[in-house]
């Protein structure tokens, strides 16, 4: 597939994907979804790639939301018939089992904030701004904002943001647990790539299962989550990388991972 709305490159074991509609502040339309779906599928299928970074082009926006111009003329029944927006969670979250990071370089509003929250974690530029302003358009979040933001920052703050449409700056986002870390804008992508390279150098099965374990915490009760965690831990003890990792520790050398 030839991409027109995103850019992709690989650096070692890390894939960098850049939303590339800067004139529209990287607004997310159907073409972006189709291309991102394809790029993430390639990343997932390529055994040489172990972690990905998603960012936005330009200094202004990660993504300023779903494309309002695309949605404004769409016949209402089509939203339901197409199950509009379902592809984001189905193709970008559920099918991607390898870790990926959102590097938020400016506005992450509406669908942009929701896309960032689909990542395994968010690194934010000091200029980043997060928000769910859909109410001002007469609608509401449609790609997970009301659910993932509430789980990330709690009911009170999520409710205030959804009801007023106000933006949260990077410091408040870090304080509230929405982002893992704040990085100066000029260093953001390099820092995210370095972090991704660290993850990519970890035993790959352990990386995937760590991701699955943490995500399980959002889907289940504590008891069921603890059982799932134990089972995944027990499965990992049967891997070649577990034997290698423990031998490497005892022999005071770096591990040589097989991903088996
Ligand atoms: N969609 C399409 N185009 C956009 C979007 C967007 N979400 N955001 C910005 N743009 C475009 C502008 O139209 C403008 O284009 P043009 O130059 O052709 O006029 C260009 O990007 C630059 O934007 P501005 O001139 O507005 O830049 P400012 O610096 O003045 O403002 C803001 C920046 C504050 C980010 C402003 O652009 C803004 O408020 N954008 C919209 C933010 C928003 O409301 N996002 C939520 C969208 S809705 C959504 O994501 C989910 C909807 C779920 C419900 C679906 C059911 C129907």
UniProtKB/TrEMBL annotation:
One of its GO terms (molecular function) is enoyl-CoA hydratase activity. Keywords: Fatty acid metabolism, Lipid metabolism, Lyase. Pfam families: ECH_1. GO terms for biological process: fatty acid beta-oxidation. It catalyses: a 4-saturated-(3S)-3-hydroxyacyl-CoA = a (3E)-enoyl-CoA + H2O; a (3S)-3-hydroxyacyl-CoA = a (2E)-enoyl-CoA + H2O. Transmembrane segments: none annotated. It comes from the Bacteria. The keyword NADP does not apply. Its EC number is 4.2.1.17. InterPro entries: ClpP/crotonase-like_dom_sf, Enoyl-CoA_hyd/isom_CS, Enoyl-CoA_hydra/iso, Enoyl-CoA_hydra_C. Belongs to the enoyl-CoA hydratase/isomerase family. Could possibly oxidize fatty acids using specific components. This is enoyl-CoA hydratase. It comes from Croceicoccus ponticola.
